[in-house]
Amino acid sequence: MSGIYIHIPFCRKRCHYCDFFKSTDISQKARLLEGLKRELQSRAPELDSEVIHTIYFGGGTPSVLLIDELKDLISTINEHYQVAKDAEITLEANPDDLSQAILSALKQIGFNRLSMGVQSFSESDLQLMNRRHGVMQAIQSVKWAKKAGFSNISIDLIYGLPNQTIEEWERNVRIAVELDVEHISAYNLTYHEGTVFYDRLKKGLLKELPDELSLQQFEMMIQILKEAGFEHYEISNFCKPGLYSRHNTSYWKSQKYLGIGPSAHSYDLVSRRWNVSSISRYLDGLENDQSYFESEILSEQDKYNDCIITGLRTIWGISEDMIQSTFSPKYFTHFQKSKEAYLKSGHLVCTSGKVCINDAGLFISDKIMADFMVVESS
Ligand SMILES: C[S@@+](CC[C@H](N)C(=O)[O-])C[C@H]1O[C@@H](n2cnc3c(N)ncnc32)[C@H](O)[C@@H]1O
Ligand code: SF4
Q: Of the ranges 5-19, 116-130, 245-259, which one carries the lowest mean pLDDT score?
């Protein structure tokens, strides 16, 4: 199982909370598309003997590309890679880029999953976040997508917004349920340095929601979504039975993936690599056959820690046998010691040799992961 991620580093406007790598200057679009195709072609040998099961166009805002541009990228992938017939092909899309005709065309050129950035069903939240779309536009896009034949739609929401009450968040979750989408990703707002929200926080113009309140919002969402038939399969992700994001799940299950485009990350089971977070340096490097990425070979400790961070976040958990058979004894000993402590405190469960964080543990998942990790300088 392997996947391809393509990073489209353009946005029409900057949202006040977002620190993903992107630019609002779209003047380099044509040159970037050539660069992406060149990278796709030159790196094909890395997945030579692999079948591609997932393709994910993320960003930034991939929906700023025209249908023909997206089609061209998909053709390049099909030309150089062995793509499974039933591959999951996802497009991250902003509601303001979508129309009934565009959605039908997206379906026609091969996309079978949409991940829409809705963020909130409150106009004032959307304005605060500097989103380009309104509430009705987001709802309409989901309805159009269904009409266009999409049967695997995900929406992104953000909770823990400044001044957001528990009732307001409940309203958001209930609207999401009514929309009858297959997948919901809900993230707790993070204040990243360099964003407008971070600056406003530092200047005292925004007030962070107290942890207890965002925790209550998280708890309430889990309850409503479970009652509505969603599986809570990863800390921030919920899906209708079986309809989890196959692409993101391949990250969490430590499978190979190729990251194409500026700032994209790749993993080949042995090393990690990350392309430069600069459109011009990425393109200059590619065009002049010079380096445009950095990489590192993973140590045993890195691999063990990756296993912890990715495995403990999902309902599939971590297999004790796998830890014992893959890593040196000291890692297994540390794993068992950490496991016992959290089994006793009621934050973990262990069923048929699989260790998973339970609902109580989810609220302190960062601490649990930190305790399971091994941090020793070499
Ligand atoms: C790559 S981003 C955005 C995709 C798309 N451009 C959009 O805006 O809809 C993926 C998701 O990360 C989430 N996100 C981004 N920054 C965040 C932050 N600071 N805190 C919480 N969630 C965030 C948003 O829900 C966003 O939709
Ligand atoms: S949330 Fe999406 S649209 Fe907004 S700045 Fe980030 S990547 Fe761009």
A: 245-259
